[in-house]
Amino acid sequence: MKHIARKRFGQHFLKDALVIEAIVSEIAPQAGDVMIEIGPGLAALTRPLVERLGQLTVIELDRDLAVRLREQPQLDVVESDVLKVDFSALAERLTPGKIRVVGNLPYNISTPILFHLLDHVAVVQDQHFMLQKEVIDRMVAAPSTGDYSRLSVMLQWRYAMENVLFVPPESFDPPPRVDSAIVRMVPLAEPPAIDLQRYGQMVQVAFSQRRKILRNTLGRWLDEQGFTGEFDLQRRAEEVPVHEYVSLAQAVQK
Ligand SMILES: C[S@@+](CC[C@H](N)C(=O)[O-])C[C@H]1O[C@@H](n2cnc3c(N)ncnc32)[C@H](O)[C@@H]1O
């Protein structure tokens, strides 16, 4: 029976065989990899991945799709909202090593998924995600560019990231109204030690009024934290490089 795409689950199914092949080639699955796919849908990516890996764990929220996926014995189907999945516990169940996470993500919750995975980054080898191209532009943006934002600062302290493939709307059924791309995210081997919650709060405050100088936003927050060090608050949030945000968070933690 034909599955009708459900808008509320952000369903846009890949249909272009060449694009699917190109994505799998970027993921480069190796025998022995322990991989988890988020939102397998009708298995467009799942099939070639499982062909190479022999088995795959998939996380799917749509019950009808989960029922179909369970018919394939090589798939370990977790029927759940990905935002509720404890990836650290799942990784522990699957392997003594690290997991690779992939997926053509539902765009309506892509940022929450990225932040959720940040909490479990210690068990992750790498991540390859299809996202709205505009979101990837913000993830990888350099300071003092229009795309440099909270998302850039929240992710770049922890991952090396690159846009590896452009994917046009026609590659999907139904086509989304935006351009898409694949991002590769590799956790840094030696990340700085920060209190993620405090860092997140600081970055949110800094970018709350991104066009204004930091004195009234971040400056006030730093005063509340009892910070007495040096920091140039005459700049705007988008002018401060990630390593300075990291150092500031570390100084505030002390
Ligand atoms: C953009 S589609 C991708 C489908 C398929 N991987 C493909 O490329 O054709 C997103 C998929 O994520 C699933 N999904 C949506 N929200 C989800 C959630 N909160 N947790 C897990 N899966 C979800 C949808 O049902 C759908 O299968």
TrEMBL record:
Enzyme Commission number(s): 2.1.1.182
Keyword RNA-binding: yes
Keywords of this entry: Cytoplasm, Methyltransferase, RNA-binding, rRNA processing, S-adenosyl-L-methionine, Transferase
Enzyme class: transferase
Membrane-spanning residues: none
Localization (cell): Cytoplasm
GO MF term list: 16S rRNA (adenine(1518)-N(6)/adenine(1519)-N(6))-dimethyltransferase activity; RNA binding
Catalytic reaction equation(s): adenosine(1518)/adenosine(1519) in 16S rRNA + 4 S-adenosyl-L-methionine = N(6)-dimethyladenosine(1518)/N(6)-dimethyladenosine(1519) in 16S rRNA + 4 S-adenosyl-L-homocysteine + 4 H(+)
A GO cellular component entry from the record: cytosol
Gene3D superfamilies given in the database record: Ribosomal RNA adenine dimethylase-like, domain 2, Vaccinia Virus protein VP39
Pfam families with a match to the protein in the record: RrnaAD
SMART domains: rADc
Residue stretches in coiled coil: none
Binding site for S-adenosyl-L-methionine: 12, 14, 39, 60, 81, 104
InterPro entries referenced in this protein's UniProt entry, alphabetically: KsgA/Erm (IPR001737), rRNA_Ade_diMease-like_C (IPR023165), rRNA_Ade_Mease_Trfase_CS (IPR020596), rRNA_Ade_methylase_Trfase_N (IPR020598), rRNA_adenine_dimethylase (IPR011530), SAM-dependent_MTases_sf (IPR029063)
Domain called Ribosomal RNA adenine methylase transferase N-terminal: residue spans: 19-189
Family per similarity comment: Belongs to the class I-like SAM-binding methyltransferase superfamily. rRNA adenine N(6)-methyltransferase family. RsmA subfamily.
Role noted for this protein: Specifically dimethylates two adjacent adenosines (A1518 and A1519) in the loop of a conserved hairpin near the 3'-end of 16S rRNA in the 30S particle. May play a critical role in biogenesis of 30S subunits.
Protein name in UniProt: Ribosomal RNA small subunit methyltransferase A
Species of origin: Hydrogenophaga crassostreae
Taxonomic lineage of the native organism: Bacteria, Pseudomonadati, Pseudomonadota, Betaproteobacteria, Burkholderiales
UniProt gene name: rsmA
